Automatic annotation (TrEMBL):
<dbReference type="Pfam" id="PF01915">
    <property type="entry name" value="Glyco_hydro_3_C"/>
</dbReference>
<dbReference type="InterPro" id="IPR026891">
    <property type="entry name" value="Fn3-like"/>
</dbReference>
<dbReference type="InterPro" id="IPR002772">
    <property type="entry name" value="Glyco_hydro_3_C"/>
</dbReference>
<dbReference type="InterPro" id="IPR017853">
    <property type="entry name" value="GH"/>
</dbReference>
<keyword id="KW-0732">Signal</keyword>
<keyword id="KW-0326">Glycosidase</keyword>
<dbReference type="Pfam" id="PF14310">
    <property type="entry name" value="Fn3-like"/>
</dbReference>
<dbReference type="InterPro" id="IPR036881">
    <property type="entry name" value="Glyco_hydro_3_C_sf"/>
</dbReference>
<dbReference type="Pfam" id="PF00933">
    <property type="entry name" value="Glyco_hydro_3"/>
</dbReference>
<dbReference type="GO" id="GO:0046556">
    <property type="term" value="F:alpha-L-arabinofuranosidase activity"/>
</dbReference>
<feature type="domain" description="Fibronectin type III-like">
    <location>
        <begin position="461"/>
        <end position="531"/>
    </location>
</feature>
<dbReference type="GO" id="GO:0048046">
    <property type="term" value="C:apoplast"/>
</dbReference>
<dbReference type="GO" id="GO:0045493">
    <property type="term" value="P:xylan catabolic process"/>
</dbReference>
<keyword id="KW-0378">Hydrolase</keyword>
<dbReference type="InterPro" id="IPR013783">
    <property type="entry name" value="Ig-like_fold"/>
</dbReference>
<dbReference type="InterPro" id="IPR044993">
    <property type="entry name" value="BXL"/>
</dbReference>
<dbReference type="GO" id="GO:0031222">
    <property type="term" value="P:arabinan catabolic process"/>
</dbReference>
Length: 545
């Protein structure tokens, strides 16, 4: 794939850099794909130059499993396998997840493509991490974590953590007032849908063995009497012959909960979706059951990615929509707790939910973030078209009010004047200062936000702070998330959240050459319905060394 310097620095490298620089990770994995004509596992500019050189990784770099083999067998990046082995190790790869390097490294050395010193360096990076883990310190049981075993996995604390994670991850997308359900008014609930009684579906992929499962049906059954109908034999939902039974159940229940969505047969590694709609006849099932339902109809969605449920969003008979993701072993308990108000939902969408029409406009071969010539762009930062639900969307059973308690309005940005003495005028270009040409430690602003719960129910609010650069900066995002904080607020009370806005990190943008700059002028911060402006001015008195 082809990726611009701007998108690499502005989007694709950002989370990896944060993991290495701020998270201090011990390992980074390079991927299968090529970026700008080079396999990532054979790109010295990326592995040695960026990850080790600029970010200072203190650990080892490992290939995605079999990607070194794919580089030779499928991508035909080199003529011989030993050339691929040499290219990866010389580029900075330390460990191969797969057999390729074990088979061909020796031949690469004998052919003079690789030196023993190159291999020793890779070995040192790998063994150093093992040493930090204490793997050479003697009897494992005598080490700090040597006593841990299977009996420490399914402890009450760990089960409670799984439940709490599921509760916090649920997002309330729509609520016309029917939620939370009442155990006194909704004594019988019809539980319908192909995901209504699933277990393993809830843990997605790349998961271990669950301690136990609570399906949505089981979780709801702990609150009220339930009537169960799957509606479809699986999430593919290729037939509607069971819909009649589902309609009868909904017609006689006090409330109906439809648990629909996807599973690993629809979306998984090596299995991409070709559309954003519910599979098969699922939409018809939701519509028909909602029409038949005597009481409120709640739609619960399980999926890893977005689903275009515009039909349900605008259907007044579907009174509420929840997204549960793949909620894990305790997912059924968490869903039921939210449905009946034991838990007040506070989750926010971590991605934009696009309409089905978006798919036709975004070829998978185009990795560009910014819109251009009929291409709509990607993510909330650049895409300006219609959405089903926006990034960061999420409702609550209570209402929160936000207000600014402390918010500075201006900041002076010092420039290293020595750069002007050497005629380095690129420091200040298009009224934007290069980040590395100022003192970032001095460019921090305190922001204090009061979050008040003005409703009748205790709740947790996820505070999202976005920044928007001056309008004159044409090559920047529309806005971007710079900070988020989750705060629990008792009904009728107030909590103060204190954050620091760092100009270099939060108010900077990347120009078309991949250079991160701080634009001068008026920046805007958005916190819910609040908007606050901060004016940045260049201080030409500068920093003197």
């Amino acid at each position: 794939m082809q990726v611009s310097k701007q998108d690499l620095a502005d989007t694709y490298n950002v989370p990896f850099k944060a993991c290495v620089v701020e998270g201090k990770v011990a390992s980074v994995m390079c991927s299968y794909n090529q970026v700008n004509g080079k396999p990532t596992c054979a790109d010295p500019d990326l592995l040695k130059g960026t990850i080790r050189g600029q970010w200072h990784l203190n650990g080892y770099i490992v290939s995605d499993c079999d990607s070194v083999g794919v580089m030779y067998d499928t991508q035909h990046f080199t003529v011989t396998p030993e050339e691929s082995a040499a290219a990866t190790i010389k580029a900075g790869l330390d460990l191969d997840c797969g057999p390729f390097l074990a088979i061909y490294t020796d031949l690469a050395i004998r052919r003079g493509l690789l030196t023993v010193t190159d291999v020793d360096m890779a070995l040192a990076n790998t063994i150093t991490v093992q040493m930090r883990l204490g793997m050479f310190d003697g009897e494992p049981s005598a080490q700090p974590y040597g006593h841990l075993g299977p009996r420490h996995v399914c402890t009450p604390d760990h089960k409670q953590l799984a439940l709490e994670a599921a509760r916090q991850g649920i997002v309330l997308l729509k609520n016309s007032g029917s939620l939370p359900l009442s155990t006194s008014r909704h004594r019988t609930v019809a539980v319908i849908g192909p995901n209504s009684d699933v277990t393993e579906t809830m843990i997605g992929n790349y998961a271990g063995v669950a301690c136990d499962y609570t399906s949505p049906l089981k979780g709801i059954s702990r609150y009220v009497r339930t009537v169960h109908q799957p509606g479809c034999s699986n999430v593919a939902c290729k037939a509607n012959n069971l819909f009649g039974f589902a309609e009868v159940a909904a017609r006689h229940a006090d409330a109906t909960v439809l648990i629909m969505g996807l599973d690993q047969s629809i979306e998984a590694e090596f299995k991409d979706r070709t559309g954003l709609l519910l599979p098969g006849y699922q939409q018809e099932l939701v519509t028909r059951v909602a029409q038949a339902s005597k009481g409120p109809t709640i739609l619960v969605l399980m999926s890893g990615g977005p689903i275009d449920v515009s039909f349900a969003k605008y259907d007044r008979r579907v009174s509420a929509i929840l997204w549960a993701g793949y909620p894990g072993q305790a997912g059924g308990t968490a869903i039921a707790d939210v449905l009946f108000g034991t838990t007040n939902p506070g989750g926010k969408l971590p991605m934009t939910w696009y309409p089905q029409s978006y798919v036709a406009k975004v070829p998978m071969t185009n990795m560009g973030m910014r819109p251009s010539r009929g291409y709509p762009g990607r993510t909330y930062r650049f895409y300006k078209g219609p959405v089903v639900f926006p990034f960061g969307h999420g409702l609550s059973y209570t209402n929160f009010k936000q207000s600014l308690a402390l918010a500075p309005t201006d900041l002076s940005v010092l420039i290293n004047t020595n750069l002007f003495a050497t005629k380095n005028y690129s420091t200040l270009s298009s009224n934007a200062i290069r980040v590395k040409h100022t003192n970032c430690d001095s460019l921090s602003l305190p922001l204090h936000i009061d979050v008040e719960n003005i409703g009748n129910m205790d709740g947790t609010h996820t505070l999202l702070i976005f920044s928007e650069p001056p309008a004159s900066v044409k090559w920047s995002p529309n806005k971007q998330l710079i900070s988020f904080h989750r705060v629990h607020v008792v009904a009728g009370s107030k909590q103060r959240v204190k954050i620091d806005v760092h100009a270099c990190k939060h108010l900077s943008v990347v120009d078309e050459f991949g250079i991160r700059r701080i634009p001068m002028g008026q920046h805007s911060l958005y916190i819910g319905d609040l908007k606050h402006s901060i004016s940045l001015q260049a201080n030409l008195k500068g920093i003197k060394n």
